[in-house]
C-alpha cells in the first residue's frame, strides 16, 4: 500500500504540473483572440461614451474610466508579445493601432488631461478639485437660470415663438448675477495656468455655452448701454472746440451789434 502511494506521488505531481502550465500559457492564438475581443469592446464603449457626452460636453469627466479601460486593453495586447508582434503588427492594415490612436487623440485633443491629476505615464487618476468646484458653481448658475426662466439647460433648438421672455429674463439677470460672477471668477482661475496651458474641454465648452446663454439668450450683458455712453461722450468732446469757438464768435458779433446799436442810438439823438 505504502509502495503504491509512493509510486502514485510523482504521477500526481506530473498531472498538477501539466495543468498549471496549461493554465499559464494556453495556445497563443486563442489568447490573442480574447484580447482583441476585449479591446474591441472597450473601444466601442469609449466611442459610445464620447458621442453620448458630446453635448453638453462632459466627455472628459464622464468617460475617464472607459478611457483607462481602453488604455489597459491595448496594454495587455502589447504585453503579450506573441499577440502584438506576431499577429497584430504583422497585419498591413493596423486597425488595432489606429483604434488606439483614435482613443488617445480624442482624449488629448479635448485637453482632457487638464481636468485630471495624471500619473507619470499620463493615465488620469482623479478630477482636480478646481474642476469639481467649477462644476458645482456651474450647477448653481444653471439652477438659477432654470428657476428664473423655466428654460431648460440641455441644449435644444431655441424655440423663439415659445420664449416669451422679457419679464422673466430681467429676473434672470438680477437673480443670477452673483452666481454667474463667481463662475466667471472660477473659470479665470482655471484659465490662468502655466504658459501654453489649455483648459480642459469640459470646462471651456460649458463656460462658452453659459456665456452665450447669459448674453444672447438672456441679454444680460450691459456692454451695449456702456458703449452708447462712451460714443456719446467721445462725440461731445470732439465737438467741444467747435462749440467753444462758435459760441465765442456769436458772443463777439452780439457785442458788435450792441456797440453798433448804442452808436446808432447816439447818432439818433
Ligand atoms: C462595455 O460597456 C458595457 C455596458 O456599459 C459593460 O457591461 C461592459 O462590461 C463594458 N465592456 C468592457 C470590456 O468593459
Ligand atoms: C448617455 O448620456 C445620458 C446623459 O447625457 C445618460 O443619461 C445616459 O445614461 C447615457 N447612456 C449610457 C448608455 O451611458
Ligand atoms: C427659485 O426662485 C425663487 C424666486 O425667483 C426663489 O424664491 C426660490 O428660492 C428659488 N428656488 C431655488 C431652489 O433656488
Ligand atoms: C415652439 O413653440 C410654439 C408655441 O409655443 C409651439 O407651438 C411649437 O410646437 C414649438 N416648437 C417646437 C419645435 O418645440
Ligand atoms: C407670455 O407669458 C405670460 C405669462 O407669463 C402669458 O400670460 C402670455 O400669454 C404669454 N404670451 C405668449 C405669446 O406665450
Ligand atoms: C463657443 O461657441 C461658438 C458657437 O457655439 C463657437 O463658434 C466658438 O468657437 C466657441 N468658442 C470657444 C472658445 O470654444
TrEMBL record:
Keyword hit for Signal: yes
Keyword NAD appears in the UniProt entry: no
Gene source species: Desmophyllum pertusum
Pfam families tied to this protein: OSTMP1 (PF09777)
Chain ranges passing through the membrane: 227-248
Gene Ontology, cellular component aspect: cytosol
Protein's UniProt name: Osteoclast differentiation
Keyword annotations from UniProtKB, A to Z: Membrane, Signal, Transmembrane, Transmembrane helix
Cleavable signal peptide: 1-23
Amino acid at each position: 500500500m505504502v509502495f503504491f502511494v509512493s509510486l502514485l506521488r510523482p504521477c500526481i505531481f506530473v498531472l498538477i504540473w501539466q495543468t498549471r502550465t496549461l493554465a499559464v500559457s494556453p495556445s497563443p492564438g486563442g489568447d490573442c483572440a480574447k484580447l482583441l475581443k476585449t479591446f474591441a469592446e472597450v473601444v466601442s464603449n469609449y466611442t459610445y461614451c464620447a458621442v453620448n457626452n458630446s453635448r453638453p460636453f462632459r466627455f472628459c469627466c464622464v468617460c475617464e474610466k472607459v478611457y483607462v479601460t481602453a488604455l489597459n486593453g491595448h496594454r495587455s495586447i502589447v504585453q503579450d508579445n506573441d499577440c502584438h508582434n506576431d499577429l497584430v503588427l504583422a497585419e498591413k492594415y493596423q486597425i488595432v493601432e489606429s483604434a488606439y490612436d483614435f482613443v488617445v487623440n480624442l482624449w488629448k485633443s479635448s485637453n482632457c488631461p487638464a481636468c485630471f491629476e495624471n500619473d507619470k505615464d499620463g493615465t488620469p487618476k482623479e478630477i482636480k478639485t478646481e474642476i469639481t468646484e467649477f462644476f458645482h458653481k456651474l450647477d448653481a448658475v444653471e439652477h438659477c437660470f432654470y428657476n428664473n426662466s423655466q428654460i431648460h439647460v440641455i441644449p435644444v433648438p431655441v424655440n423663439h415663438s415659445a420664449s416669451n421672455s422679457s419679464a422673466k429674463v430681467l429676473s434672470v439677470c438680477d437673480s443670477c448675477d452673483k452666481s454667474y460672477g463667481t463662475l466667471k471668477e472660477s473659470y479665470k482661475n482655471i484659465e490662468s495656468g502655466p504658459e501654453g496651458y489649455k483648459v480642459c474641454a469640459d470646462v471651456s465648452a460649458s463656460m462658452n455655452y453659459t456665456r452665450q446663454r447669459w448674453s444672447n439668450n438672456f441679454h444680460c450683458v450691459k456692454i451695449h448701454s456702456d458703449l452708447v455712453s462712451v460714443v456719446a461722450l467721445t462725440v461731445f468732446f470732439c465737438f467741444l472746440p467747435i462749440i467753444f469757438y462758435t459760441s465765442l464768435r456769436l458772443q463777439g458779433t452780439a457785442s458788435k451789434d450792441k456797440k453798433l446799436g448804442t452808436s446808432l442810438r447816439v447818432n439818433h439823438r
